Amino acid sequence: MSWVSKTLNSTLGRKLLMALTGLFLILFLIGHVSGNTLLFKNDGGEAFNIYAKFMTTNPAVKILSYLTYISVIAHVIYSIILTRVNKSARPVPYASNQASTNSAWNSRNMGVLGTIILIFLVIHMQGFWYQMHWGNLPMVTYNGEEYKDLYTIVQFAFQQEWLVALYVVSMVFLGFHLSHGFASAFQTLGLNHVKYSPAIKKLGMAFSIIVPALFASMPLYIYFS
Questions:
Q1: Cβ pair 58, 160 in contact under 8 A
Q2: What is the dihedral of CA 104, 76, 37, 207, to 10 degrees?
Q3: Which one of 38, 92, 99, 174 has the minimum C-beta count within 10 Å?
Q4: Which uninterrupted H or E stretch holds 150?
Q5: How far apart (Å, rounded) are the C-alpha atoms in residues 128 and 82?
Q6: How confident is the model at residue 138 (pLDDT cuts 50, 70, 90)?
Q7: Using an 8 Å Cβ cutoff, are 17 and 78 in contact?
């Protein structure tokens, strides 16, 4: 067995992959939320539609997209494997379980939070990502060039109360997931220092609040405006 296989099949190797894919997905969230803020621009969707076309046609972005898909799949698979390994290592719970006092709620329920986020992600991709690539979208023209009018689809989607509620609630769960996962990823990679760890935790907490809040504000803004 090669060292690569040994690493991937070891608990440490799986945790490292979880950390690396998690950090890559954090970078993806930064880019995604930055681009989606164009929904706030009062230009009838021109900037957002141009951005959407760029993101689905640019070769470099396509490569990053494939890496994102791989990271999501790997993150999910290895989280399931690690959860099973942990349960099999301790099939009988401790007689006195004080988990609620020894660890935060989100750290004990990362699997549940991740499952909810995964379900949301499937709904999100079916509603927008799939539609942008293969849906029968209306077309608009800017400066003589045609673009798929994803902006109108987004506007229509977020007039539905249940979908707006789903997005807002899902972003709350994402925030809880990130609040533990951000600092945990750095710790797994060995970047754990008495001098820097507090700053990493504060940065992670700020990130877990700001980014989900920005995502949640978009459907709310569209619905109420």
A1: no
A2: 30
A3: 92
A4: helix 150-157
A5: 31
A6: very high
A7: yes
Return the residue matching tokens 């989280």.
Answer: 79
Cβ atoms of 128 and 154 within 8 Å: the answer is yes
Cβ burial 198-218 (10 Å sphere, 16+ → b, else e) = eebeeebbebbeebbebbbbb
- Render 19-33 in DSSP notation, one character per residue: HHHHHHHHHHHHHHH
This prediction has a pTM of 0.90
Helices and strands, number each (H, E), in the chain: 11, 2
Residue pair 150/157 in contact by the 8 Å Cβ criterion: no
pLDDT in tens, 151-171: 999 999 999 999 999 999 999
Burial category of 128 from C-beta neighbours within 10 Å (exposed 0-12, middle 13-18, buried 19 and up): middle
